[in-house]
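hey team, just a heads up i'm posting the complex here instead of the shared drive bc the drive is being weird again. everything in one block, sequence lines first with there labels, then the predicted structure for the whole assembly after. its four chains so it's a bit long, scroll down
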Amino acid sequence: MAGSTFGTLFRVTTAGESHGPGNVCIVDGCPPGMELSAEDLIPDLQRRKPGQSRIVSPRKEDDTPEILSGVFEGRTTGTPIAILIRNEDQRSQDYGDIKDKYRPGHADYTFDAKFGLRDYRGGGRSSARETTVRVAAAAIAKKLLRLTHGIEVVGYVDQVGELRATGIKPEEVTLEQVEANPVRCPDADMAAKMEELITDVRKRQDSIGGASTIVATNVPAGWGEPVFDKLKADLGKAMFSLPAVMGVEYGQGFGVATARGTEHCDTFVPDADKAPPIGTDTNRHGGMLGGISSGLPIVLRCAVKPTSSIPQDRPTVDRNGKPTTIATRGRHDPCLLPRFVPMGEAMMALVLADHMLRQRAIHTADQSG
Amino acid sequence: MAGSTFGTLFRVTTAGESHGPGNVCIVDGCPPGMELSAEDLIPDLQRRKPGQSRIVSPRKEDDTPEILSGVFEGRTTGTPIAILIRNEDQRSQDYGDIKDKYRPGHADYTFDAKFGLRDYRGGGRSSARETTVRVAAAAIAKKLLRLTHGIEVVGYVDQVGELRATGIKPEEVTLEQVEANPVRCPDADMAAKMEELITDVRKRQDSIGGASTIVATNVPAGWGEPVFDKLKADLGKAMFSLPAVMGVEYGQGFGVATARGTEHCDTFVPDADKAPPIGTDTNRHGGMLGGISSGLPIVLRCAVKPTSSIPQDRPTVDRNGKPTTIATRGRHDPCLLPRFVPMGEAMMALVLADHMLRQRAIHTADQSG
Amino acid sequence: MAGSTFGTLFRVTTAGESHGPGNVCIVDGCPPGMELSAEDLIPDLQRRKPGQSRIVSPRKEDDTPEILSGVFEGRTTGTPIAILIRNEDQRSQDYGDIKDKYRPGHADYTFDAKFGLRDYRGGGRSSARETTVRVAAAAIAKKLLRLTHGIEVVGYVDQVGELRATGIKPEEVTLEQVEANPVRCPDADMAAKMEELITDVRKRQDSIGGASTIVATNVPAGWGEPVFDKLKADLGKAMFSLPAVMGVEYGQGFGVATARGTEHCDTFVPDADKAPPIGTDTNRHGGMLGGISSGLPIVLRCAVKPTSSIPQDRPTVDRNGKPTTIATRGRHDPCLLPRFVPMGEAMMALVLADHMLRQRAIHTADQSG
Amino acid sequence: MAGSTFGTLFRVTTAGESHGPGNVCIVDGCPPGMELSAEDLIPDLQRRKPGQSRIVSPRKEDDTPEILSGVFEGRTTGTPIAILIRNEDQRSQDYGDIKDKYRPGHADYTFDAKFGLRDYRGGGRSSARETTVRVAAAAIAKKLLRLTHGIEVVGYVDQVGELRATGIKPEEVTLEQVEANPVRCPDADMAAKMEELITDVRKRQDSIGGASTIVATNVPAGWGEPVFDKLKADLGKAMFSLPAVMGVEYGQGFGVATARGTEHCDTFVPDADKAPPIGTDTNRHGGMLGGISSGLPIVLRCAVKPTSSIPQDRPTVDRNGKPTTIATRGRHDPCLLPRFVPMGEAMMALVLADHMLRQRAIHTADQSG
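-- predicted structure starts here --
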């Protein structure tokens, strides 16, 4: 229980189900004095929501956020910021079938095993609908990171099924490139092929997996706490807390399994652009060494499974373990990746904002006596 | 700061450096009445320590644990259990060179960037020496899991460089199979090849990466907390908190990126051996759905980078950013994987013990009125 | 920062200001299956709100709670319960004067010192308005405690100024007795005198302090965690987190300072009504020994200062430290005590619900092997 | 469970029993670069230990602390500092009688009720012996507070039984005055009377209660977090986490119950010595308004009960609830107050160090854009 709070100093608590009255988050710990309005939350909510293009779910969600507290005369006050996003397009009738049957790949069964009952409308609490307020909370974190350190957090799709875009340089990708196509793959040629593949999969009443890379640039060296709260540990938790993420890797990632030390380790070199003036010539380490940021871009990659909601009849069991079949006929994404991008960015931004504040508490010499 | 505590109810706090007086952990939250003595901690400490075979570091560490509290007349009392493991084989002179130079791939630079100074003997706090007390703490967790639920946590090496053992069935691997060879790969033929490869790499004064799978069997359905403290999220954090881990994946892992929904989703089937009598026919989901345990074995896999300590001269910079060279001539593992196994098991056991207690707090119907 | 969350397993996070859009709480960790509706929250909200009688503030607050999540088909689901209470009667014009002047006894100055700016409408975040959602959250805790253990949490006023009701037996006070008069003092004669005194103080444009006792009956022996999370420690934090509380004492309280050990210590006696069949003959210890519940009623008493809002001109300084005068002409309680009672009960209930769940995690013998 | 950790950023975890091998604490979050050695911990440990004078317990405890980690070349490194204090004078035979009988006023019964078993040697985990490592940890906090802000935390005894020293000005008391007599009452005449009273009580084989005031000077305005982590809330928890504390009050304390608002509220006045140049003319508020420090001295007072260990036969029950008698013949303090002083100071220092770091994370304008 009590697993709906994330972060130590920049702390987000969420509540809400897919088909209840709405989703709420409380962002506690945002420093005071930062300009903020509901407008700041809209762009990422727009990127996250369904119905943006023909390759994502045609559901309509308005996702209009209301800031209920913590902002006064256009600035944050340092007190908790509550954000409410009401659920509007709730066609509960779409979901009646899943009351007693367990959808393959979904959390229906495990929620019942855990709680003994569940809100079976949509995925209830296990629905990705819950991530709306994470994205809203993270818009605040992103703004804070940008204003204080010029940090940009940008994600993109680099794989859909067998199609993998291998030539992208993570640290050079811009939001504009990502938003230039509905797949959110900055390689335009590959994006076109991916879109075609997703369309094909949807026609076959199937779904498809993929991968997304999330990058943060301008993170100073020194963030992250040994030994359990390493930046890579907290980012790992953050990413795996998102629905459908089955793998996370940093820098060279699983490629290290076949690497020799002499080829993996990046070489420290002078870098006048940094303070201290030290960098590495390459970034196979993904921007963290010993779990602490190195000043190089933070680069991680998430494997995202194919949507479990598929409009074909499939075998399953009911609550009593009796065999039956089920098809999920709602309006669902054939590929989660395009809408995953803002969610992945959100979780990275929340972790970075938290560690920024944690590092602030330490980064001063005045106790040296 | 304050990143040395892990867990909510079964909570471990560690302290210690590689070349200071010793490492300590405090295990808070172990239920009372469980038989426990220092003997229980020895086997996994033996598995973790260097000097076990010719393919791991020849350093000698005695790793004799002393239980300082929390056990009375051979049983846990419910109060915190402190464990002290003194450092004995501290050849500090091996490490003098790294005071002012940054070793590639190590945390020397990032610790300096974070703290402004560092204990430069060995890796100090960033050394894997710190994991001794995690392994000791986890021996308690393992015992608790075994006694209460028959849970077994077993890890093994399935990849060293290009050599990957693909035929192993994770849920069938036994501790005996793992311990049958120094590589800790239960596929004996592959283990022999891996050993040869590691020996070759060491001769070339290089190091090599690999991967390890960690499995927990008999975990009941229902453990893990939506939405941030999902079991997969806490396990992800746990694994990434270990040194050198660059990737973590569950079940089908990164393979989901190329999968279709119809092929990825495991099918729910009746399973009379379980309570409730429900299972899945396959385990591509890795034992968790919606981040909550499904009753199937928990299966995860970690990518571990090649040891950064290599006894060759390599270019780097000093504290002032001035180019220089460094070789790490200490006694180091050419391949971290064999000794990673007990560390990976340890972190999984700590997470499971914590979530077992968290689930105990909820799993009762007496509030239903 | 991040100080708006309370509790480990039964965890409440709040947000909201007195004159913003509303106050919100998220109750995370309530076990599933408990009947719950917004109706359950109303009675205590009614007791807390202003305008109930002529001795409390005539402000009107409707305090209609909306449950936004965590309840499905009339039962809790185990997922977080968000509650929204909108602010309705916001006469901001009443407060314009305090933008630049510091009201004596209020948090205006310390909020400015902390945050550099503040929401100066009403007390903003420091207003007791914030406690509405604590009271709503605690109504859930109270119901849980009642259903699972028959625990009742009841508070009452035992002192207003010089008037102290000394003959009340804490463990025998009922909610009905407390609600029988507007002062919430179960001694009817004393209540009448207290009401007269408060009326007199109000006419003099002054305010007056007092004290309130909060009692929990039927708490089983064994709740509370050594050494920092003792029940008395967590209750102490809980009470001191309420506005205006300047002192907290348990059982004999400050009376222990003049006591001898032979007279203070309660004697253990057989008590067939308890399990185990052990009690004490008296309850000077206030229901906790070593900070852990003893099975006797939990009894604590809070000293509450006189309202700082007084409609007389008083000297103060402005933001620049320049002397000036201020009068607080809003609609304020001349004595906080009557409305403090449900707030004190609320905080006790939140602590007990949390420790009930914490004890559930430990109270089983199945690890004894 | 898991109640042995205290603090958010400056975090202390303790373990240990009175008659086990020793007590340990891990101080996580101390900033790097501060000079520190075991010598720094000795003075307060000396003040806490028994055997200092004829009015405290004649037990001998050597209390030699060993720093096991977190300090390198005489300075803190920012990594956790583990401190071990071994138990030496363990006359377990003194305590055999309490295995099956419950000592009145002690935690024997409640520990059994909680855990089902207990370390019955001495008080085990409930013994005040556990506070040794809190005092050691707090010596680090005190040094940090002194070096960074010139903060001094000083406590003293102001009441023993009926003898109350009422003329002491809390903010003017010095450590030297406190240490000038064995009672630790800075009023020398009163101290002599108190000593006489304690001696008399001891001769009568009884014990006596009292009260202690703890003061922190030079705490800047702005520390403490609304709404649950108010400075007064965290200090309240801290004090009540100490054994034998039955009441805590700030500033005017329980005196507010009889006060009128016009007389209680301190008046804001210009104060050129402060930044911002604002203070109050008096300090009835105890240095906190809205739970946030005001720049005035933090002043709190604790009521401490008489020692429960009394060498007279007293009625009680055994584990089965059967009536019997018990006398506690060990070497115990007839009055806890003199040795309480360093414990109270310790807990205040730990809270202040934590909130200092929390405020550092917020107190900057660079997010104002």
